[in-house]
Design a protein that fits this description.
Oligomer: single chain
Number of domains: 3
Structural class: alpha+beta
Distance between the termini: 60 Å
Strand order of the largest sheet: 2-1-4-3-5-6
Strand content: 15-25%
InterPro entries: DUF8212, HET
Helix content: 25-40%
Protein name: Heterokaryon incompatibility protein-domain-containing protein
Order of helices and strands: HEEHHHEHHHEHEHEHHHHHHEEEEEEEEE
Number of strands: 15
Shape: elongated
Organism: Collybia nuda
Largest sheet: 6 strands, mixed
Pfam family, one: DUF8212
């Protein structure tokens, strides 16, 4: 028979379960030095009184809640600047506070920001704090990998995210701040349940928050919330709470990508890495791979989600596959044609309900795609191309296409990359619908594809389009539903 576990042993299990989900290192605000403590050090410092208190709680959910409260921490979101003290510096100095004795370090903008963050977190009643400036040991490849893949969860598990907006002096300037144009700050906005903005002088952006303590959330602030929504394009349902792992919150890949479409990162790889948590994906961090990082991210999304809106983008394609975009900026619907932008709007699920392309529970959607050795297996409606003309604009250096397919109205589109038009290219051209967008819709999003394989009539090549192509069905026009493979190579 299995041995009966004592309450004390169960309490230790609860503490271990909670501690493993906190960051690898936290700043200990209970010590005057504000020194860094590892997970194991924090766990070893737990007093018997806490174990006894947790052991006295009969319900495990409440016991875990009490343990999370004991290890709650504030987390910093900011824009990096000059003079940021790293992990090695803080360890060498013995903590954040002793570093003030270094006259050179103490005058640096980055150090003052870190110190004031720690002081503010302690004033708000926190025992622990986390800042990416000094709480990640980048000299350890393993710890760096874990940190990047766990970053979203660490922000989500925090009790409060303190956003410091350097140079900001008033609410009127909020929407123009650089913080809204950086890649990593997107997850720092979405993940935390509670968030508070601080101005340049380290006072709350909204004066009403002064002295309120932990119970503040500027994502729900009636003065600030509309500015966030307008600036980022994030709908209220996701400002109320964004849950990457939840299937009950309808989400579209193209909408999530759109949030990052106007954001920048210092390194090209980071535009993919900063989106890992938002798409609930973990993958190897390989700096030096360049655009391959965003290609790998899209491959991982395709493997996990049947949502075809991953393919509803416009602009330059990936260097590794014509199916994928080269950057989230291709999902910036504000640059699309009016019909494509309108179609995108009609596809967005409602506040918790609505049509969800790719949902396995919705029989109106196309069957899910499957990635195979032969390419991406899809089952789409295809429309044979009757006429296809392509000419180059000598002034703009782009190509203008005119396409007429059976059952669809004639469409025009531009591309910065051209291809040899028939009859110079062997094969058969089709417009392939990646929809349908909604039941009974007359407009459908399409790809221009062609069959270049004489011996394999079911293998096609996806061609570039400069923006999402939207075609209108003619009265009585029906596509030929077929299963075929799309190349995932350029």
């Amino acid at each position: 028979m299995p041995r009966y576990r004592t309450r004390a042993e169960t309490a230790k299990d609860v503490v271990s379960e909670v501690v493993v989900n906190i960051p690898l290192y936290l700043i200990d605000l209970q010590e005057p030095s504000f020194s860094l403590k590892s997970r194991n050090q924090i766990k070893d410092s737990v007093r018997d009184e806490l174990y006894e208190e947790i052991a006295s709680i009969d319900d495990r959910i409440n016991a875990c809640s009490r343990a999370r409260e004991a290890f709650s921490y504030a987390i910093l979101s900011h824009r990096w600047g000059p003079g940021e003290p790293d992990f090695g510096t803080i360890v060498e100095k013995g903590g954040v506070t002793p570093a003030s004795n270094d006259t050179v370090l103490s005058e640096l903008q980055g150090y003052q920001k870190l110190l004031k963050f720690c002081l503010e977190a302690r004033t708000l009643g926190f025992k622990y704090a986390w800042a990416d400036i000094c709480c990640i040991d980048k000299s350890s490849s393993a710890e760096w990998q874990e940190s990047v893949n766990s970053m979203y969860a660490w922000y989500a598990n925090s009790s409060l995210c303190i956003v410091y907006l350097h140079g900001l002096e008033s609410l009127d300037e909020l929407g123009k701040h650089e913080w809204f144009r950086r890649g990593w700050t997107l997850q720092e906005l979405l993940a935390p349940e509670s968030l508070i903005f601080y101005k340049d002088d380290w006072t709350p952006l909204d004066p009403v928050n002064l002295g309120k303590g932990k119970g503040v959330n500027d994502k729900l602030n009636t003065k600030i919330r509309p500015i966030i929504a307008e600036t980022t394009g994030i709908r209220p349902i996701f400002l109320d709470g964004f849950y990457p792992k939840s299937n009950k919150q309808p989400k579209l890949v193209m909408e999530l990508m759109g949030w990052a479409s106007r954001r920048k990162t210092e390194r090209p790889e980071d535009i993919a890495y900063c989106l890992l948590g938002i798409f609930n994906i973990a993958m190897p961090i390989l700096y030096g791979e360049g655009d391959m990082a965003f290609h790998r991210l899209q491959m991982e999304i395709m493997k996990r989600s049947p949502d075809w809106t991953l393919l509803f983008w416009g602009g330059l394609q990936s260097s590794y596959s014509n199916l994928f975009a080269i950057h989230p900026r291709s999902f910036d619907y504000r640059k699309w044609n009016e019909e494509a932008a309108r179609l995108r709007e009609s596809l967005l699920p409602g506040e918790g309900v609505g049509y969800h392309p790719g949902s396995l529970e919705d029989e109106t959607t196309a069957p899910p795609h499957v990635l195979t050795q032969n390419g991406l297996c899809v089952q789409w409606d295809t429309y044979p191309v009757e006429k296809l003309n392509c000419r180059e604009n000598k002034h703009t250096k782009d190509f203008i296409y005119r396409v007429k397919a059976t059952g669809l109205t004639e469409i025009f589109f531009r591309s910065t990359t051209g291809f040899l038009e028939p009859p110079k290219v062997r094969g058969h051209f089709y417009l392939a619908s990646i929809g349908p967008p909604s039941p009974g819709a007359s407009s459908i999003p399409v790809w221009l594809v062609y069959n270049r394989y004489v011996k394999n009539s079911n293998k096609f090549k996806a061609l570039l389009r400069a923006e999402p192509i939207v075609a209108e069905k003619l009265p009585g026009g029906q596509g030929i539903n077929r299963s075929f493979y799309l190349d995932v190579t350029p």
